């Protein structure tokens, strides 16, 4: 059994610096994609207590819900739809301070107030996204973007 070593009273950047090597070690020793995505979701949720964290994977030209932690979520998202579909279409991270102000936002949960979505790119193609929601407005920033993008790059071999 794996157990994360989380430090109490750390700031956000320290939490990322502590957590990312642990996640990388955890997933690089496992071959199953679903198991790895489930553990990444659980690790991020445990460390940051976000409202929702999980993955959508591109299948048959749609984003299909993958492993996640949090309340029930939307199952299928088209390209260009909502924050996830837009991050897929644009192949770039999107940070939304207030989801109510994002054109075409898909409200899977009315409790979600802000969001960050990181595309997963292999061989110059988006194959999925990491989606993180918070029940707080303006929760995500450049620090989250830096470390979540780093996490996705560093674990790209699992895809």
Highlighted features:
159 residues, alpha+beta, Beta-Lactamase, 6-stranded antiparallel sheet, 4 helices, 25% strand
Task: Annotate the secondary structure layout.
Layout: H1 12-28, H2 33-48, E1 52-59, E2 62-69, E3 76-77, H3 82-90, E4 94-96, E5 114-122, E6 125-134, H4 142-154
Antiparallel strand pairs: 1-2, 1-6, 2-3, 4-5, 5-6
Helix pairs in contact: 1-2, 1-4
Provide a compact summary of the structure.
With 159 residues, the chain is of the alpha+beta class. Helices cover 35% and strands 25% of the residues.
What would you say this structure looks like, in words?
The model has no long low-confidence stretch (mean pLDDT 91). The chain is an alpha+beta fold and 159 residues long. It has 4 helices and 6 strands, in the order ααβββαβββα. The chain has helices at residues 12-28, 33-48, 82-90, 142-154; strands at residues 52-59, 62-69, 76-77, 94-96, 114-122, 125-134. It has a single domain, classed as Beta-Lactamase (2-Layer Sandwich). A hairpin with a 2-residue loop joins strand 1 (52-59) and strand 2 (62-69). Helix content is 35%, strand content 25%.
């Amino acid at each position: 059994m794996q157990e994360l070593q989380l430090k109490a009273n750390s700031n956000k950047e320290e939490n990322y610096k502590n957590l990312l090597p642990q996640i990388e070690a955890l997933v690089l020793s496992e071959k199953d994609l679903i198991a790895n995505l489930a553990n990444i979701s659980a690790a991020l949720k445990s460390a940051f207590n976000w409202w929702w964290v999980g993955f959508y994977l591109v299948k048959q030209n749609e984003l299909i819900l993958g492993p996640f932690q949090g309340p029930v979520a939307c199952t299928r998202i088209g390209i260009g739809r909502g924050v996830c579909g837009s991050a897929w279409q644009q192949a770039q991270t999107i940070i939304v301070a207030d989801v109510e102000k994002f054109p075409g936002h898909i409200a899977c949960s009315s409790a979600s107030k802000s969001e960050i979505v990181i595309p997963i790119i292999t061989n110059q193609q988006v194959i999925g996204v990491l989606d993180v929601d918070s029940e707080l407005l303006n929760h995500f920033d450049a620090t989250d973007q830096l470390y979540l993008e780093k996490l996705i790059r560093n674990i790209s071999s699992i895809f």
